[in-house]
Amino acid sequence: MQLQEVRGYGPQDYQSFPRFYVEGVESGEYMIVDLETLTYKLSPNPTGPLALGKAIYEDAWDLVLEPLEGKAKRGYALILPWRGFEAIYIPRGTRLSLVEAGGVRVDFTVREGDKVEERDVVAYVVTGKGEVRTVRAGARGVVVLIAWQKSRDPLRYTIAVADNADVYTLRRSL
What we know:
This protein is mostly beta strands. The chain is built from 1 helix and 16 strands.
C-alpha cells in the first residue's frame, strides 16, 4: 500500500466530504439506486424502489451505525468526489468491522471507498503525551464510513470496514 499525505477532516474539506444518502430519510434530494445496472441518479423526488434521502455526513453515527452489533442499521450510500463521483452503497444489515481512533490529533491514511487488508494502517493518533500510535484495520474489505459521535469529548472516530462482497460500487447514470 502506497502512503499518501493525509490529515483529519476540517471545515476546509466540506467540498470534498462524501455526499451521504440514507434509507428512510426525507429530504429535498434523493439518490435513486439501480442495483441491476449498478448505477445511481439524483432526483428531487423519491422515485423507484431504492430511494435514499440526502443527510448530513456528521450525523452518520446516529443514522446508520449499530456499534454494539457491528452492522449497518439502515442502507446508505456515499458519493465520493475524489473518485470521480463514483458511489458506494451499503445495504441494511451489512456486517461492519469497527475500529476506533481518538486522541489529540488523528491523521487518516485511508478514505471511504479505499480497500484495506487486515492489519493495514488506517490512521495515526497523537496522544495527550505526544506519543504517536498506529491504528490498524481489524478486517479485510472496503472502508465504508469514517464517523464520530458529536457528543464525545475528546472526539473519537470510528472507521467502518465492510467485506468487499457486501459493498456495491455505483456509477452515475446519464
